[in-house]
Structure formats: structure tokens, C-alpha cells
Amino acid sequence: MSITVQYPSAGARMCDICLNATDHPALRFHEQDGRFVCQECLDHFATRPSAEALTRQWEEVMETRRGARGYDFLLAFSGGADSTAALKLLVEKYRMKVLAFTVDNGMKHDAVWQNCMGVTRHLGVDWLYVNDVKRASAVIVEAVRAADKGGCSRCDKGWRFPNYQRLMREYEASCVLTGIEIPYGGSIVSRNNPWLIRMMAAHQMPKKDIFAYISDLPWTDPGVQGFDTDCVGGGIGLELYRKRNGRHAPVILSFLCQQVRYGLLDREEELAKLNVPVPEEHWAFFADQFGDLRQEPAGPPKLYSLSLGAPAVPQFAGCGAED
Description:
With 323 residues, the chain is α/β, with parallel strands linked by helices. The protein is built from eleven helices and eight strands. The protein has helices at residues 39-47, 51-64, 81-93, 110-123, 133-145, 151-170, 207-213, 232-245, 250-261, 267-272, 280-290, and strands at residues 29-32, 35-38, 73-76, 98-104, 126-131, 176-178, 196-198, 319-322. The two termini are 36 Å apart.
């Protein structure tokens, strides 16, 4: 049963640009040029990198970071819309030889795997499937429960980044590309992890344009709620947060606001989707893997030892699988 939370709350006023509202703790608002604007929007537009600067950064990456054993680049390919667009750009626009790899954390259901297999086969790209569900299970339940406390960051540090770095060593690569569209401050290169490059931040395609761009590929929207179009955990964590706190998680509002400011998402459409529930079949899928998180734990967190949470990966040409 999804929890509907009024947003903005009664009596609150929303920023005319993003989704921030006056019920946000400690956030200042201003009247400027006839608009009601939050301080975060003012800061964003004062420091936002130009599209030209981001493009130059990507061109420099292609010149100086290109090269892996047998490939031009390694791409973290989640099977979601953004990484699918990134893969198509790399193959069709830039004529790169790419190794697309997907690290399984147990939260990708069958539709996502069908996207991964169908898209890589269609584009003639080598695809490496990495099964790391068992290690992911050691961090995943608490990460989902902590949806507003850097849950995705816990997953990154606990299983995603170690796999990225291992593959970089194996393939003698200097970086991993991702499909994330929001720059790290003013750069597509992470300051804390300079080997991590947000390729799509240099292309910044609104979501509707991304869906149009990949419409000729065998990709279908898996109907996942939350941060991504590939991972059921984000939406489940955010729904749990609504249930327990009676409000939307500030982390999702911040994430949406960033994308609205960059013109990647439509403000009114995202406002309308804030209470869209996680499909019941996704709850069932997650419960089968990790237990039913709608039930409060009776004791300390349990670490689950899992079997592979995805269908067998077919061994078509150019596809590898790891355990």
C-alpha cells in the first residue's frame, strides 16, 4: 500500500524553477525578476558549467583516457535509459569499440536483463555480466532502509566501485564511463574518484529526448520507480521513507531538483509522479531476494546469502559471464 504525502505541504510555496518548497528546513527563498526562487537555484545558475565546457572535457577524455585491453572504453551499462543512450552514442556517433559491463546486485528484474541482452546484441557490443549479488547482499538491505542517508552511496562503496576498479585493472583501463547526466560540480570527472567519468553529463539530453533516441533499440521501460530505470531498490527505499517519516525523502527531492534545473526532467511531470507507487511485482521480486522490508526487523540486520537473482545469461557471441 503506497503512502500518499501532500507536496508541498499545506501553506508551503514551491520554487518557480525547481521542486524545492518553503517547508524545506533552512532553505532561503527570494523574489527575483518576478519569480519566487530558492537559493539552490540561484547558486546553480551562478556556477553552472557551460555546455561547451562540458563538451571540451569529454573531447579531452576521448583524447587522453581512451584505451583498454582490446577496447576504447569500459562502460558501466546498467540497462537503464541513460546508459543505453550512452552506449548508442559511443558506438554510432563516436565509432568506439566498447566493453559494456553490468554488475548484478540482485535488484534488476527480468525486463532489465532483457534490455541488456537485446541492446548489446543489436549494437554488436561485447557485454560482460558480473555476478556480485552475494557481496552486494552484505550492504544492500541497510542501504535501501537508509534511502535518505546516502543509500546509493553505500552500494557504490560496498560493491559497485570495487568491481569497477577490478575490471579497470583486468583490462588495463584508466577510467570507467557511466550514463549519469548530472556533472560533478562543474566537471564530468569525479574529483574524489578521477577514474569515474559521467559521459552523459557532456551530452545532457532531456529524458524525453533520450527515450526518442533509443526508440530504435530493443529497449523497453521496465517501469521502475525511484532514481533509475534499472534498479528496484531506489523506489522501494523511497516508499519506505514516506511510510516511516510522513514526507518525501529530501535526497529524492534534491536529485529531481538538480535534473529539473539542467532541463533534463519536466518539473510538473516529476511533481505528479512523486507518489507513484512501486509496482507490487517489484516488491515481490525484492522480497524474494532480500526479504520483505515492509516488515520492521525484529533484531539486528540479517545478511543474506543469495543465489543468482537473474536469468541465465545466454552465451551468444561477444558475451561473457563471471561468477
